[in-house]
Each structure stands twice: as structure tokens, then as C-alpha cells.
Amino acid sequence: MSKIKEIKISNLILFVIITMLFIWRLGYELHKAELVFYGLVFSVFISKIFQKYSKSIKKEN
């Protein structure tokens, strides 16, 4: 695996962790139903990113 791919993966993981912490912090201020909704939207968003990223890796190989 090249260094560029490793950097992309580590940046993506860092982004996921920061966003999850941000959503968790919002949980104190929002109702639980809203938090569940934001969690669902976030998980769908992350799965789309991983699908695009895995497709780009397959194209390079």
C-alpha cells in the first residue's frame, strides 16, 4: 500500500472519529430522537464515502 493511500485512510478515520464525538456532544443538547436521526444520516454518509473509496482503489488495481 502506498503512502498516499495510507494518509487518505488515516484522514478518513480521523474525520469519522471527530464527527462521532461532535454528534455525541450534541446529544447533551438535543433530544434523543434527533440524535438517532443524525446518527443514521451520518452512518449513511460514511458508508457512501467508503463505497466511493473502495471503487477508486479497485480502479487503481
Number of separate strands = 0
Characterize the main sheet. none
Give the low-confidence spans: none
Query: If you compute it from the alpha carbons, what radius of gyration comes out, rounded to the nearest whole angstrom?
Result: 15 Å
> How would you classify the helix and strand content by structural class?
mainly alpha
What gross morphology would you assign?
elongated
Overall domain count:
1
- Overall residue-averaged pLDDT value: 75
Beta-strand share of residues: under 5%
Distance between the termini: 11 Å
Please tally the helical runs, counting DSSP H or I stretches of 4 or more residues.
2
Element pattern in H and E? HH
What level of helicity do the residues show?
Answer: over 70%
Describe this structure in words.
The protein is mostly helical and 61 residues long. It has one domain (3-60). The chain has helices at residues 3-26, 32-60. Helix 1 (3-26) packs antiparallel against helix 2. The longest helix is centred in the last third of the chain and has 29 residues, at 32-60.
In short:
This protein has 61 residues and is mostly helical. 87% of the residues lie in helices and 0% in strands.
